[in-house]
Design a protein that fits this description.
Belongs to the Gfo/Idh/MocA family. By secondary structure, the protein is an alpha/beta fold. The chain has helices at 13-25, 40-46, 78-87, 102-115, 129-139, 168-171, 175-191, 206-209, 298-310, 320-339; strands spanning 4-9, 30-36, 54-56, 68-71, 91-94, 119-121, 146-154, 196-204, 230-237, 242-248, 257-264, 267-271, 275-280, 283-286, 343-344. A hairpin with a 2-residue loop joins strand 11 (257-264) and strand 12. Helix 3 (78-87) runs parallel beside helix 4, helix 5 (129-139) packs parallel to helix 7 (175-191) and helix 7 crosses helix 10 (320-339). It is globular and about 65 Å long. It binds nicotinamide-adenine-dinucleotide (NAD). Nicotinamide-adenine-dinucleotide is lined by residues 9-15, 36-39, 42, 59, 72-75, 77, 95-96, 122, 124, 163-164, 178.
């Protein structure tokens, strides 16, 4: 089959740092035929390593040049551009979070179904080799029935001081919708994608709204800071499983932490690093593996899966229906924090 023609919409940080380098590596399978950015200079700069892709500031012009697009704009435009692409018959890999809210996510799924095109969300933590191995072990019932997930996704004083990450209108929120959502997705997937039924959440921005705070990732304007920088939540699922969740851009902790832990009835799996404990012979055994096969670049794994899925040769590693469940929980945490009580989904 000929190479998949891929367009980039939104050619800033993540497009240039992750997706375009990976597409160069996969150039035998995919060709970058269009690059779009409202800032045309950004699109031109992103195009330098490729053989003269079509450059435009208008995303509507991309679709006639492409079989698939990667949407890397601020969150506010994810749904609008995904739906336009799908309606034009083009497959979509959309950056995370899926959308600004679950209603938009639902409309994206409906458009994908109607057009019979692929829609994948770039929750790339699933593509890490340790996460793939953890999922395999859980699916093979090596920890029994997964019951409780714990997430701590903590950055020590690292509020993004660039781009639009702290712009509520463009992004919909802060640490939860930007960073925590990856770990929400990962833990739901490892739990076996149960349906969330009740959410209790709290959001904070105390630290970032105080004057003269030190920050490792650039300057934060405490007077205009309007999104969450720290979030806690308790999520109950229809099968009785629960998730204890904490994420932060600005925690007062010794060091950054990305920890997902799944307890089952006969064992437990921890990420990152990958560790396994199994109850056997009346003992709790350390079953940690000596070698985890797979590549070191989850962006490459993710893109390969998307290309294969577009060709009809693989299932999507992040189906949109599962990303929508993350969105529902994110919405519910924000709602619960605002109302000061738990929210039923
Ligand atoms: N998967 C990850 O780990 C990860 C990491 C960083 C960012 N992201 C996601 O990627 C997206 C972009 O983030 P970024 O860091 O690249 O931001 P960025 O600001 O560096 O780039 C966004 C680009 O989109 C362009 N743009 C804005 N509106 C547009 C429109 N309507 N049409 C075309 N171009 C438009 C901007 O000019 C900008 O160049 C966000 O949704 C973010 O959540 C994901």
């Amino acid at each position: 089959m000929s190479r998949l023609r891929i367009g980039i919409i939104g050619a800033g940080g993540i497009a240039q740092d992750r997706h375009l380098p990976v597409l160069l590596e996969l150039k035998n399978q995919a060709e970058v035929t269009a690059i779009c950015d409202v800032n045309i200079k950004t699109a031109e700069q992103a195009a330098v390593s490729f053989s003269q892709p079509f450059i435009t500031a208008d995303y509507q012009e991309v679709f006639t040049h492409t079989d698939a697009v990667i949407i890397c704009t601020p969150n506010k435009f994810h749904a609008e551009i995904s739906i336009a692409a799908l309606e034009a018959g083009v497959h979509v890999l959309c950056e995370k979070p899926m959308a600004m809210n679950a209603e938009e996510a639902e409309a994206m799924i409906a458009a994908a179904k109607k057009a019979d095109r692929k829609l994948m969300i770039a929750y790339h933590y699933r593509s890490m080799k340790e996460a793939q191995a953890a999922k395999r072990l859980i699916d093979e019932e090596e920890i029994g029935i997964p019951m409780v997930a714990r997430v701590q996704a903590m950055r020590r004083r690292k509020v993004p001081g660039w781009g639009v990450f702290t712009n509520k209108e463009l992004q919909g929120g802060g640490s939860l919708i930007d960073f925590g959502c990856h770990f929400m997705d990962l833990s739901l997937w490892l739990l076996g994608s149960p349906k969330p039924v009740e959410v209790m959440g709290n959001t904070y921005n105390t630290l970032s709204t105080m004057p003269n705070q030190v920050n490792q990732w650039g300057k934060v304007d405490n007077e205009s800071f309007e999104v969450d920088d720290h979030v806690t939540a308790y999520i109950r699922f229809d099968n009785g499983a629960t998730l204890l969740f904490e994420t932060s851009w600005a925690a007062n902790v010794k060091e950054d932490k990305e920890h997902v832990s799944i307890s089952g009835d006969t064992g437990g799996v921890d990420l990152f690093p990958l560790e396994v404990n199994q109850a056997k012979h009346g003992l709790l055994m350390d079953s940690t593996m000596n070698w985890v096969p797979g590549g070191e670049n989850p962006g490459l794994f993710q893109m390969q899966n998307f290309i294969d899925a577009c060709k009809g040769e693989a299932e999507l590693i992040v189906p949109p229906e599962e990303a929508m469940e993350v969105q529902k929980i994110v919405d519910a945490i924000y709602e619960s924090a605002e109302q000061g009580q738990s929210v039923q989904i």
